[in-house]
Amino acid sequence: MKRVLVPVGKLLISVGMGVLLFVVWTLWGTGIGTNRAQNRLSEEFDAHGPFDASANDRGRPPQPPRNFAPDAGDPVFRIKIPAINLHDGKGFIVVEGVDQEQLALGPGHYPECRPTLSVELCTEQPEVWPGERGRMIVSGHRTTHSFPFLNLDRLDEGDDILLQTWWGDFTYVVTKLRIVDDQTTEIVNPTATRRAQLVLTTCNPKHSSAERLLVFAELSEWGPPAAGRKPATNGN
Hints:
Structural class: alpha+beta
Radius of gyration: 20 Å
Number of helices: 2
Largest sheet: 8 strands, mixed, barrel
Strand content: 25-35%
Number of strands: 9
Helix content: 10-25%
Strand order of the largest sheet: 1-2-3-4-7-8-6-5
């Protein structure tokens, strides 16, 4: 019996160590690649010159050019959330697309359907960008890939969400938090509101994908890139 138990015990220990290492890699190891990608994306984003938004200088928020159509995985804007010290205050670069390949790089902007993007994870309606009317969706991981949205549940009504883009800087203010079923799809609707609205989405609870945590926010201030912001009006 002892001859049987010893190898079985060693096998179980090996299996247990393998499971432990897999969990460690899933929770923290995936962040190595994400951090490297974020460093690269941040350099690309900062090296890109601002768009000419002079045509929007009519008391309305600046908007991107009409032909702005980034490919999957391209950097599109930076998000900072002071209340939860997102990424040690540095924020994350948001990329275009919300497929697993894109979310491994950082938070993803829900796109309109184009040949370079997954047809299952896009909208047939025109996508919404920072400063524009409509519902803009940004999704992110909560416990893997540097867990950008780990502490979204700690946000309160009135907290600021800062978006830095090539056409302007925008401040959105949290209005509510909501938890929905993981199969809920009505949230992904750019025309669900005529206001300039931002919705952050992530898994809920932590270490589970049974539900979705949603953070709703509305545009409150805006201005040119790295310039003074103006208060938004009810006409957004």
